[in-house]
Amino acid sequence: DPLSILLEARFEPCQVCGEQSSGLHCGAITCEACKKFFLRSINGEDQKYKCVRNKDCIITRNTRTQCQYCRFQKCKIIGMTVKEGAEIQQTPRVADIFAQISCYVCQAPSSGIHFGAITCEGCKGFFRRSIKERAPSRYKCMDNGTCEINVATRNACRYCRFQRCIKVGMSVEGSRIGRQSNLFKHHMRMMLQRNGQIPNATMLHQMVHSTSSSSRNKTSSRKRTISESSSSESESQPRWG
């Protein structure tokens, strides 16, 4: 399921040592430590690497610093390379993929997921300015809030444009949803290669809101845990008087 691929992408382990990955680095999904190790190694450091065993050391988070030789070999086996750019150009850039999906607000070509919804740069900027300047309370509509918002009319009525932003799911809380990390971009390209088609707006919309719900649930869970912990500590304190 392509949607599942996108939703679970950020939870993939480092392909070198198994630690939680931080993104797509040098052509492979790795953690920060293995990325930096590989970059140091390709500058000539690898010439000093020796394996005192049989060149078959198991590389994990706990053992990765014990044998530089086998760790570097693992990096090469999974495909890490400094020539990543040549491979990436074979498939469309993420910006090009989004450009083929219409902005949820005005129907112009979108540029990404902004404030929790798929929008163009114009509507992203409009929403950001509106919130920053606390302007929505001053917006008025001369046509009872029924204006049609499209590329040609979006600047005619700020009230209806802002209402449209809210309706499609834009919010301050959603500002961190959908930021396109290297890993996110990698999986969008993988989806394109596997399915031969560009992920559509419905799929990306589901991804955005599933991620949003997951994030809210995790936050609520953390708050409950902290609250319960504080309550437990309070009850365990000796009472005086």
UniProtKB/TrEMBL annotation:
Record's keyword annotation contains Manganese: no
Region Disordered, annotated ranges: 207-241
Domain Nuclear receptor, chain residue ranges per copy: 11-87, 100-177
SMART domains, per database record: ZnF_C4
PROSITE patterns, per the entry: NUCLEAR_REC_DBD_1, NUCLEAR_REC_DBD_2
Keyword terms, alphabetized: DNA-binding, Metal-binding, Nucleus, Receptor, Transcription, Transcription regulation, Zinc, Zinc-finger
Pfam family, one: zf-C4
Alphabetized GO MF terms: DNA-binding transcription factor activity; sequence-specific DNA binding; zinc ion binding
Xref: SUPFAM superfamilies: Glucocorticoid receptor-like (DNA-binding domain) (SSF57716)
Name this protein carries in UniProt: Nuclear receptor domain-containing protein
Organism this protein belongs to: Rotaria magnacalcarata
